[in-house]
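Re: the request from the purification team.
They wanted to know what the chain is likely to look like in 3D before they choose a buffer screen. I agreed to run a prediction and write the result into the notebook, where they can find it.
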Amino acid sequence: MKTAQRILLTALALFNRHGENTVTSVDIALELDISPGNLYYHFKGKESMVVALMQMHEEHMQRVLVSDKLEALHAEDIMYYLYLLIDSLHVFRFFYRSPADLAEKYPAIVKKRKAILSKLNSQLSMLIGQLHAKKLLEGTDADKTLLVDLISLILTQSCQFDELNSHMDETAQRYHALSLMMVSLLPRLRVSNKELDAIKVALNTHTFANKAQATPAFTLE
């Protein structure tokens, strides 16, 4: 792995673990066991690393938020897809911790972050709309809009809630987010009792979480 890539992945891990505000460029260099000068050769300060990570985040989400894949999804596939969204955002979760502060410090990331959230909301609207059109989900237009807002909120903010209010590990945080979404979705799903029971069993036994962990949504060559 190239040094620049190692720097970015280390910075990402430290930002996620401790928060961007508490991590310095020197901390990142020490974690990598390289000199601050070597780090500065690749990235001229923390801002350039944050901007590069946002670019990485945007490129990854573009690969995940592909609308034509939604048409073939069945009820159980929907849960797996939601978990993949959770996993994808969780990898870059520091961007969703105190976003107003980050936007003030790093204005260069604001446009890309807004684009990601806009695309995410569009994808969720399409997902809910297709479920409704296939008569797999019941609710009014207002209900559908609120469901999109709620799922988006859980996707982007549940991790911060968990970190403040519990000591869940990363896998538990992901599964908790999925469970929060399902509390709202399950009562509205119009599927057979057999399919509904299968979804509940999968949730209760972490089947979706385990499956997604076996095929992670984010990898780097």
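For the purification team: Confidence is low (pLDDT under 50) at residues 209-221.
Please add any questions underneath this entry.
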